[in-house]
Amino acid sequence: MLSLLTSLLVWAVPALICMCISSSGHFGWPGDSELRRLRYESVGVASLVGASLAAAGVVYQAILRNPLADPYLLGVSSGASLMAYVWGFQFANTLFGATLVALGQQAFAFAGALISVGIVLTLASRRGRIAPVTLLLVGVIVNAIAGSMFLLLNAIRPERLAGTGSALAFLVGGIQTNLSQAQIWIAATCVAIGWIVLLYLTGKLNVAALSESESEALGVRIHRLRWTALGVASIVTAAGVAVSGPIGFVGLICPHLARLMVGRDHRRLLPIATACGAALLPLADAGSRLFYSTGKTLLPVGVLTSLLAGPFFLFLLWRDRGEMTVPH
Amino acid sequence: MLLVVSHLEVSYGRHAALIDVSLTLAAGEVVALLGPNGSGKSTLLRALLGQLPGGGSIEWHGVSIAQWPARGLAREVAYLAQIPGWEPQQTVGDTLRLGRAPYLRPFGIESKRDIEVISEVAHRLELEDLLARPLESLSGGQRQRVFVARGLVQEPRALLLDEPNTHLDLKHQVELGELLVSLARKQGLAVLMASHDLNLAGAFADRLLLLNEGRLVANGSPDEVLRPQVLEPVYGVRLVRMETGRTPLVAPIVESRTQKTS
Predict the structure, then answer these.
(1) Chain A partners of B109 at a C-beta cutoff of 8 Å?
(2) Domains in chain A: ranges and CATH
(3) Whole-prediction pTM value?
């Protein structure tokens, strides 16, 4: 309970600060009701995406027993990007039907993320068992294939990326501004339900760091746990990526940031890391607005999260050099 | 009888890892499992935990292994792997808490009982002052003691250990052996321990089981099993037995060494 209250505080303070930062550089609570609504939406969506990536990052690192694991490892981002790109093509109508196309780019991205993860999990499992090393390798390969298909499509139709339309905005990662209320609520529901399931599993996630025989001897069906946790974490990631595009480093860095604060126990780690993600992304979004106020272009938040988190992560790697474990 | 194994058979593909193995384990008994590399010691331990499918029967408390729910069995039997898993910066307290995994409520909520057991085991194994220490800061002996403590936190009736003396110096090997015997005598814990050290096993165990190519070829007291005629066909080396007045000792006869010094 204490960690949930702390998490709320970790998220609420930066979120309130972000509410006060305008794209004109002014700092203050938005007086205009329409502006306030837009700001709520922007901070809310950024928090949702950050929370989803950070929570998924905690689970991926625990299940894959790899501190460098990232929610995009199983092809979520490349699958989402590919399908988001495909959405604008004529052949998408033929392939996926007009109804799905009408649901929008976010629906395509969500479907792409899930298809990618589904392929990775199917190829990496053998008799219902998932081996972390195989999963990592299959994830890398599926990511590479999806990336190549994306480049192939782009080579055939280079004009699709030439502009600054929504396809490009999605691919560079950023809080989308063309979202309907339905899209936001669907994503929020997926993330909320998934997060509760992950919180339910946190006691078992602590055991996942041990070998298979030790985990099972502690009463944890490790293969069932891997399927459930990775499946749910991937749905949570897909829901976040569908409304933001791939945003780097949040899922990687927030679990480490939270570990510095509360240690390794996943019962505390998951809520705090989620709060860190939910705070970091609105901060990056606010930073992007501030950058815009200087008369420059609106920076995608993905660029800022990488700039903020990258050096911090390098510091962690340097500090813990020799201690990072690899899966076995 | 705590554990009864009858005609156990386990295979890896076409390779038979355990063939017609039958054994028992009683409360308060310390039993050492001996045998050369690949004889099936680790496979037997994992089979007893229900982790490997096979033929024959395994019964804990008269209940077939297939009938035990995973969490239920984890409350009865604790297991210490040859190389226990742990993460950098994992503290002794974190490690002990893992032992309560079979008892945790949904969302990983601990009960008052969980906290009491961890505290009591830490006190009993003299780990109270180390609870906040990361495992990497401990000596090999201390660390092994922590892992035994993690097993005890499960409040099991049996403790299965896979070569627990690996990486321990002689002093720590003796300390660990004394600890296991003391737990068996004072708490009635049944201990089954795979080991490569024949003499140490003989010194601490009430009974020795000898595996060879998946078959149980000897089952008896240290005096009965630690004999050259029993061990030589299994290990493929010549041995000499030395009487000490207590447990007999066995040592290999190294021909090349004898020739060089003579």
Answers:
(1) 203
(2) 2-319 (1.10.3470.10)
(3) 0.85
